[in-house]
Amino acid sequence: MDAKTEDFVQRNLRWNFSVNLIDITFITLAFSLISRETIMPLLISNLTDSKIAIGLEPAIHSICFYLPQLFAANHTERLKHKLPFVMLVGGVVERLPYFFLALAIGLLALTSPNLTLLIVYAVIALTAFGAGVATPAWYTMIGKVIPVNRRGIFSGIGHGLGALMGIFGAVLVGIALDEFAYPQNFAALFLAAAVFMGISWGGLALNREPASPSVKEQISQWQYFRQLPAVLGGNANFRRFLFAYSISRLGLMGASFFIVFGNERFALIGAEVGLLTAVLLG
Predict the structure, then answer these.
(1) Where do the structural domains in the chain lie, given as residue ranges?
(2) What is the pLDDT of residue 61?
(3) Looking at the predicted structure, is the pLDDT value of residue 209 above 90?
């Protein structure tokens, strides 16, 4: 980073620190309302009796989130400004579909449960794809606007506030599930999540990002893939991280079934679903 860019980052540090906290806290609140470990499986179990259908939810999300990153990284590494790309993909593809899902649940869940289930899967796939495509550019942007010596405190405060907001979201989950009849309870949760995602996107849009002094030269996607074995071969810590992360993801394969089993066995009320959401979030 050259002196001019360093000066720009320092002058805008407090601003960027604050607006990115808005982004993180409100996106965490939004996802606590539609938790993939509790609310999504519970919604799917109301639309179908198939346990395979419940298990498809995390599988669809994982494939659509992780695989696109391999293709998006090659493109985003060549962008001098990452923010416009993150705003476009993170807004239109990652966040906006939840608003339409809320409408679909409210209007179709009772009369056309199979169609609603297909829409749920489509939104899971589309939003996960958007998040996956935007993630490499978002991390690079954060690395540009938050200096190394501030990233630890930024991460700590961001995740701390996010957890607190998530607990608040879990309370809202309990209220919505208890006070509204199905399917309006789920529609309300997804609509509220879409609103909070909009606030999150507003915080994201307020970033002041400097232009990258240099970017990687353009190469074909095939050339990019050919470089990946060298990256893995030359970094033992990275290989260990990928192995550990893969094992941790395997451990979460059954998470979607916890809430469904609990609901079938104990007839959980909304407050108990909210409590489990808060526990899993923490």
Answers:
(1) 24-207+252-281
(2) 93
(3) yes
CA angle, 24 then 124 then 62, to 5° = 80
Q: The tokens 């498809």 sit on which residue?
A: 56
> Is the CB of residue 38 less than 8 Å from the CB of residue 275?
no
C-alpha 282/C-alpha 263 separation (Å) is: 21
Q: Is the per-residue pLDDT at 282 higher than 70?
A: no
pLDDT in tens, 179-191: 999 999 999 999 9
Q: pLDDT by residue (tens digit) across 73-82?
A: 888 888 999 9
- The rounded distance, in Å, linking the Cα atoms of 21 and 147 is 15
Determine the Cα–Cα distance for residues 8 and 10; give it in Å rounded to an integer.
Answer: 6
Please give the Cα distance from 98 to 125 (Å, whole number).
12
Domain 24-207+252-281 class? mainly alpha
DSSP letters for 69-104: HHHHHHHHTT-S--HHHHHHIIIIIIITHHHHHHHH
Q: What share of the chain is helix, strand, coil (3-state, %, to 5)?
A: 80, 0, 20
15: DSSP letter: H
| Cβ-contact 276, 257 below 8 angstroms | no
User: What does the CA dihedral 174, 176, 178, 184 come to, rounded to 10 degrees?
Assistant: -150
- CA–CA gap between residue 214 and residue 57 (Å, rounded): 40
Please provide the size of the chain in residues.
282
Q: Do 25 and 158 meet the contact criterion of CB atoms below 8 Å apart?
A: yes
Q: What is the pLDDT of residue 1?
A: 63
pLDDT in tens, 132-142: 999 999 999 99
Nearest Cα to Cα of residue 215 among 281, 146, 144? 144
Query: Model pTM greater than 0.70?
Result: yes
